């Protein structure tokens, strides 16, 4: 985990196998109540709580991975390992439990080895990165091999220093996760803020004059605002086998997001295929509307001027008559909560709720004069840009916070968090309190517990 010269001289170089028991078994009565932990209940955050279900020990002891209070468990299978599913086992019924066979269990070899230290080790970037690189098995079922875990190199601090490290990590990483939690709440606040912008745009509040959209602006059907509206080609007209590595672009549902065209997923057809579907050619500022409507309306403007694209089935194209309305204004109407409520009344289907183009074109909206629309769009765009800037700053801050966790763990295992403590407490890291002395005690205890070679055979021979 650390280069030998990175750790303090008072720490002992060893491997995880030197200080833990890997996947030990519990001895307990079948009638005891125990904790059961499926993979879904394992946390990913550093201070996440390990949840459990209560079951009788006899039901779970054989088919699942055993563990007990004070053990450290972590997922060995992809993607759970990469997601950081790990925890210190605490507060199990009767102090014991069992869980997914995809857990590794690390039990401290003695009371002088801190489970908090072991847990911190498996949460380090070095352990997680190297573990992922050493995975074996088929795609989708790759696992961290036992040999990697046992041979993972560590620098072991003295017992007293382990507690100080654990305490400091607990305080510092709790502050990091509290900051992260606060930052992660901001996107939800921004989502509500954006919806309030859309609501204000649809009602005319952004002009400072509610009369902008009142009885002087009678409701009109969406169809009356369009020069054309069409769905993409269905069935045999456009099949997956028609897709190519390049050529004319195809807008699919994956590209249509709420107020945003997602360019990350690209699909193409050949020029020859395009000639058979040219009536579906998209133009800049066409409104693209996803027929599938669940938690929100997914609609955006087509952003390209010089690139040729068509739309796929279920990706409606609404081409706005710009003498009647601005495409941006109509987009804001369609994606507002008022529009969402109106559309949801006509949604069909349960597993894939959708609206058809005929229903969409029949929806009615109050549309102010073009000049008023322009004012609303300008003010809405300014507010959206402000929200976007905040979101960018939050994302940058989250990246720094996520990096901070690993930075603190790295400092801990270089001995930087306890440098002053070592200077003030030399007697707690030397002699019988040293890390080397701790390793010697662990080895001596294991030697006592290991049966003599051939001991069982000799005993049976004596009985005979």
SSE class: alpha+beta
Which architecture of the largest domain per CATH?
Answer: Alpha-Beta Complex
Helix percentage range: 25-40%
- Give the strand order, joined by hyphens, for the main sheet: 2-9-6-7
- Note poorly predicted spans: 455-464
Question: How would you characterize the overall build of this protein?
Answer:
With 464 residues, this protein is α+β, with helices and mostly antiparallel strands. The chain has three domains: 12-156, Adenine-n6-DNA-methyltransferase TaqI, Chain A, domain 2; 157-217 and 373-433; 218-367, Adenine-n6-DNA-methyltransferase TaqI, Chain A, domain 2, CATH 3.90.220. The protein contains 14 helices and 22 strands. It has a four-stranded antiparallel sheet with strand order 2-9-6-7. The longest helix has 45 residues, at 159-203. It starts with 11 loop residues before the first strand and ends with a helix.
Strand-helix topology:
Blueprint lengths: L11 E4 H4 E3 L10 E5 L15 E4 H4 L4 E4 L3 E4 L10 E3 L7 E4 L3 E6 L6 H8 L2 H9 L12 H6 L1 E4 L2 H45 L15 E3 L4 E5 L12 E2 L3 E4 L4 E2 L2 E2 L6 E2 L1 H5 L11 E4 L8 E3 L7 E3 L3 E6 L6 H8 L2 H8 L12 H6 L1 E3 L3 H44 L5 H6 L10 H15 L5 H9 L1
Helix pairs in contact: 6-11
